[in-house]
Amino acid sequence: MLTFVIRRLIGLIVVMFVLSVLVFLLFFETPGVDPARLMAGRNPNPETIKAIRHEFGLDRPLPVRYALMMKRMFITRDLISYGSHTKVIPEIIAAAPVTFSLVFGAAVIWVVFSILFGLAAAVLRGTIWDPLLMVLALIGISIPVFWLGEIVNLFTQSRWHNFFLFSWVPPLGYTPLTQDPLKWFEGLVFPWLTLSVLYVGFYARVLRANLIETENEDYIRTARSKGISERRVLLKHNLRTSMIAFVSLFGLDFGILVAGGALLTEVVFGLPGVGLLTYNSLTSLDLPVIMTTVIYGAFFITLASALVDLLYAWLDPRVRPT
Amino acid sequence: MAVFEPEAEGIILDAEETGGDVVGRSPWALAGRRLVRNKLAMGAGVLFLAIVAVSLAAPLYAHRVAHTDPFEPNLSGTFQLNGKTVQVIQQGGGKLGLGETPVGPTWHSKYLIGADQLGRDVMARVLYGGRASLFIGFGSALLACTLALVLALVAGYFGGTVDLVLSRLMDLIWAFPLYLFAISLATVLLARPTNKPLKIGFVTLNARSLWIPLLIIGLVYVPYVYRPIRGQVLSLREKEFVEAALAQGAGSFRLVFREILPNVISTVIVLLPLMIATTILTEAALSYLSIGVQSPQASWGTIIQDGQALLYSRPWVAILPGIFIVLTVLALNVFGDGLRDALDPRSKVRVK
Predict the structure, then answer these.
(1) Could you tell me which chain B residue has the CA closest to the CA of A125?
(2) What is the DSSP pairing of strand B100-102 with strand B198-200?
(3) How far apart, in whole angstroms, are the C-alpha atoms of residue A140 and residue A134?
(4) Secondary structure in 3-state letters for B232-246
(5) Helices B222-237 and B261-288 meet at what angle, rounded to 10?
(6) Of B132, B114, B131, which Cα lies nearest the Cα of B123?
(7) Separation of alpha carbons A281 and A92, rounded Å
(8) Which residues does chain B have within 8 Å of residue A248's beta carbon, measured at their own beta carbons?
(9) Across the strands, what pairs with B115?
(10) Is A282 within 8 Å of B184 when comparing Cβ atoms?
(11) Which residues of A touch B165 (CB under 8 A)?
(12) Which residues of A touch B277 (CB under 8 A)?
């Protein structure tokens, strides 16, 4: 186990290094792109460009430039946004709880409903309900999340807002949990539902397929022949195995959403999370912010997937390579 | 209850397939017959073709039916509706009697579902937008599949260090949040003065060219196609028929192109409609974030973004392109599912 941990950690460091080099090369060394100009935002004056060129050592050799950038990003953490003249990293850290609130709530909804739908479709196989549920899931996968968000806003904020069912919906925006838990919850209900639609559809399909595949396994037949009730076979024997694919997918998707994948939902509902921060810096071309969110996001995902791997190895010795 | 039941999920075996009088049919012909018998998939295919046809007919609609130029702002224009003269941009349409509101749905040939902020015919724009969205969707899916196929053949066939390096690289991109990757590429490629075209080698791209979002989306999805195909190439390499070809003295070229390629091509064909569905959604998202298709070009995503500002007063501007996206993507997903069942019933390829 110890060698596995050490090997995984070395792999993690290598991946992080390669990632940071790739992002650095993409932003600073793309042929035909002047990074100082990019850095300075829209319509910069020549002095700013000159200052940036000096500050980032753009006139010095490549490894020095890379090292300087990484130092500012991770050690001194004093990278400054040229749009808002604030420090980038504290800004990202302040935005993180919003993103986390959004993704966490959506994850709860999508896990519960996709298991319900997946189970229902698998159990009701052969009836009209199974294809009906699966078409519904397919529709969920086919809806662009930002468009769905707009439609939800149209009805909850405007058209049906005076209707008693939706009159409680607060205006778009975010209230911190520590400030007012009820307002936090009310403001996030529709973003949660909107974000989870795609994942409910996708996970329900995956789970149904796995349930049906496991159904043909010998140990399921054995369980039946022992006289165990259908319900017990389904929940204790079949579902447990079928959840393996579900869980490993979940880990990756959750990580990706926290690291910036929830961007579209944040933009359409005006939630000031990491995604909205990236979007706003995109419209003002604030390169330091974009680059930092990209690198921090990528690091978060590699860290999370390494953690998941270690957890797996700890739970299931067969995964540990020898 | 121990009766063996064959899987009957949309695949009904033919007399020819189960035995009986055997008429020589290629696997492709058999798959084609299975696909044609799948009513849902065929319906979805027809729907998709209808959307493609309607989008291709956009100029016809704009010139012959709506009589407008959907790319030309028309802020002070007027038109006739039921014998009355109507202004395209109406003053004081807002809540407080202030501001400007474009004309709403007329349900007539002109401004069928209204105008956008610049007074342009939204229906005509949505049809033109379909051309851009479908072009980028097709093109980037094709690009991703081709690149992934070539890389997977190289990695799977040569194995060793080549495979290790390529697969690690793909894992790296895979772990990267898709939108962040696309945003990084778009910032670098789009953040330039519009009059200064981008030069990659001997190709020159205008900053507004549809090829830029096409390239970005195509590149981003390479790992998603690469993974399943590489796995298949690896397992095919160990098959007896490859060994037999090797024993006959076949060179690498013949092994890769005549033995392995024909066997993975069906996986690529199964993946293609599902990939187009995904790339159309991605294009819409990037355009919504204003890093996809650039004005004056329109795509379904950019029109949804235009409609966001008018959402509460003229909701149809945002609703209609979304309906087109949902129908297109749904049709492709259903058709792709049917295609998979027909070509490769045991496949594990799923929609995401």
Answers:
(1) B9
(2) unpaired
(3) 10
(4) HHHHHHCCHHHHHHH
(5) 170
(6) B114
(7) 12
(8) none
(9) B121
(10) no
(11) none
(12) 142
Reduced to 3 states (helix: H, G, I; strand: E, B; else coil), residue B205 is: strand
Residue B180 near residue A298 (C-beta atoms within 8 A): yes
CA gap B304, B317 in Å, rounded: 7
Residue A144 tokens read as 């662009």
Element (H, E) at A290: helix A287-315
| Contact with chain A for residue B290, Cβ under 8 A | yes
Q: Is A32 on the interface with B (CB under 8 A)?
A: yes
Helix (H, G, I), strand (E, B) or coil at A48: helix
Q: Where are the domains of chain B?
A: 25-60+126-351
- Kindly state the tokens that stand for B350: 């799923």
Task: Return the residue matching tokens 């092994």.
Answer: B255
* Complex-level ipTM: 0.86
What are the backbone dihedrals phi and psi of residue B177, each rounded to the nearest 5 degrees, phi first? -60, 125
Contacts of B176 in chain A (CB under 8 A): 19, 298, 301
- A and B: number of Cβ contacts within 8 A: 143
Shortest alpha-carbon distance between residue B288 and chain A (Å): 8
* Dihedral sign from CA coordinates of A30, A35, A37, A38: positive
CA distance A205 to chain B (A): 9
Inter-residue contact B109 to B102 (CB < 8 Å): no
B139 has a pLDDT exceeding 90: yes
Q: Are B135 and B109 in contact (CB under 8 A)?
A: no
The CATH number of B25-60+126-351 is: 1.10.3720.10
Convert the pLDDT of each residue in B225-246 to its tens digit.
898 888 888 888 888 888 898 8
Strands (E), chain B: 78-81, 84-87, 89-91, 100-102, 198-200, 203-205
The Cα–Cα gap between A83 and A281 comes to 8
Q: What does B275-293 look like in DSSP terms, one character per residue?
A: HHHHHHHHHHHHHHTTSSS
Cβ contact B322–A151 (<8 Å) = yes
Averaged pLDDT, A48-76: 80
Q: Is B311 on the interface with A (CB under 8 A)?
A: yes
Least confident of A66-70, A140-144, B240-244: A66-70
What residues 80-109 of chain A have any CB closer than 8 A to a CB of chain B?
A: none
Which of A150, A263, A266, A268 to mutate against chain B (most B CBs within 10 Å)? Answer: A150
Residue A151's pLDDT band, with cuts at 50, 70 and 90, is very high
Instruction: Note whether B303 and B317 are within 8 A (CB).
Output: yes
CB count, 10 Å around CB of A240? 10
Contact B304/A at CB under 8 A: yes
What residues of B are in contact with residue A114 (Cβ under 8 Å)? none
Q: Does A307 touch chain B (CB under 8 A)?
A: no
Q: Classify B121 as helix, strand or coil.
A: strand
